[in-house]
Amino acid sequence: MLIADDQRLFRQSLRIVLEHESDLKVVGEAGDGQEAYEQTKALRPDMVLMDVEMPKLDGIAATRLLVKERGDIKILMLSAYADDERVLHGIQAGAVGYIVKDATPEEFVKIIRATHAGVEITSPYLANLHPVVLARLRGSKTAALALPAANFSELNLTQREQEIVDLLVLGKSNKEMADQLCLSGDTIKAHLQHIFRKVGVSSRLEVVVYLLTGRRAS
């Protein structure tokens, strides 16, 4: 596998952890998205641990390019926060899951092994819902039929709020929503806070999970 993260200490520490496992091999490191893209093409690892935010080319853009060129590549996004909205963008770009950076070494190893084996799991946050959320974000019709829809009537969303949650599920950023709806960034933030209160959650990722599955994260 290849580790792509702009924090050298984290990258090297993670490499030491992984190389203590006899069945895991780190073939390279990258300090930015452009290097991650180039190193992956040159070294052809079967998996990449990709930080969401890096200089030159962010992890999401690098993921999108690599998945387009190599459909068999398995990419796990790395994020400092469990509710990082960029995780959604990474999944939509083709990542198979994500790991929160403060996960324990045991969690890192477990997630990496499971992902390599084709099992979609993630850090403890939303662990039970994660395969479902992944399928919905990727547009799986099977998953859409198998899951209950959120009860929108009980949420009492306004028409504008419904427009915003539609864009939220598509992974749009605040700026993209503001541009598309011809609203200011502050107005989008205010609408999101109203939506959070109505749904009973505190983050964008939790809203998406509820909207996609009809269930709140515990």
Describe this protein with a few key phrases:
218 residues, alpha/beta, Rossmann fold, Arc Repressor Mutant, subunit A, five-stranded parallel sheet, 12 helices, 53% helix, 10% strand, elongated
Give a written overview of the molecule.
- With 218 residues, the chain is α/β, with parallel strands linked by helices.
- It folds into two domains: 2-125, Rossmann fold (3-Layer(aba) Sandwich); 145-213, Arc Repressor Mutant, subunit A, CATH 1.10.10.
- It is 53% helix and 10% strand.
- It is built from twelve helices and five strands.
- It has a five-stranded parallel beta sheet with strand order 2-1-3-4-5, with helices on both faces.
- Strand 3, helix 3 and strand 4 (74-79) form a beta-alpha-beta unit.
- Helix 10 packs across helix 11 (185-199).
- The chain is elongated, with a radius of gyration of 18 Å.
- The relative contact order is 0.10.
Content-based structural category: alpha/beta
Count structural domains.
2
**Amino- and carboxy-terminal Cα gap:** 32 Å
Q: Count of DSSP helices?
A: 12
Q: What kind of sheet is the major sheet? A: 5 strands, parallel
- From the alpha carbons, calculate the radius of gyration and give it in angstroms: 18 Å
Mean pLDDT: 80
User: What is the CATH class name of the largest domain?
Assistant: Alpha Beta
What is the N-to-C order of secondary-structure elements (H for helix, E for strand)?
EHEHEHEHEHHHHHHHH
CATH fold field value of the largest domain: Rossmann fold
Assembly form of the protein: single chain
Strand content: 5-15%
CATH architecture title of the largest domain: 3-Layer(aba) Sandwich
Stretches where pLDDT is under 50 for at least 5 consecutive residues are 124-130, 140-149
